[in-house]
Specification:
Elements lengths: L4 E4 L9 E3 L2 E3 L24 E7 L1 H4 L5 H15 L3 E5 L14 H10 L7 E4 L2 H9 L3 E5 L11 E3 L2 H18 L1
Parallel strand pairs: 1-4, 1-6, 4-5, 6-7, 7-8
Antiparallel strand pairs: 2-3
Bound molecules: magnesium ion.
The site of magnesium ion (MG) has 6 residues, from loops.
Amino acid sequence: MAHPALFLDRDGIFNELVFRDKSFHSPRSWDEVIHFSLAGLPQIKSLGFKLIMITNQPDIERKIISQKFVEELHDFYQKQYQLDRIYVCPYASNEHPLKKPNPGLFLLAQKELDLDLSTSFLLGDTEKDTLAAKKCGISSILWIREYNQNVQSDFRITSIKELMTILSQRSNFIQRKL
Ligand SMILES: [Mg+2]
């Protein structure tokens, strides 16, 4: 049976964005990483959801961020939160099918991990995330920050507790259907 997943964006969810040159960027080194606490996230796996990070990192192709740093940071998050898989789009072009808001990485994950997208969720902080989710029938959850109040989404949260409530309800619904 195909599993549901909770897809997670990285910047703005796992770590803060870095304000530089009048706009927000991904951290470029460990010195710039300020973690958000996502304590309780691994418990979501007990509801039957796979935990999968999907992140745009276009500064890799631009050679502004090293692949080595990205891999180290992702190893840390994978261990810390028991993530099942991490998918990275390293390409800078907005036309690239793997770069959000295009749905390529979600579709790749569906194929590789046998996922049921119709019962899956995405947790993100930008319109790129929620649009990508919408394109492939995934319910979107926006983590409210000061910069994203106008972004449309199916759900809005400000804590892991609220996330758990939404996913528990869906999990009960799926079990009733079986
Ligand atoms: Mg983000």
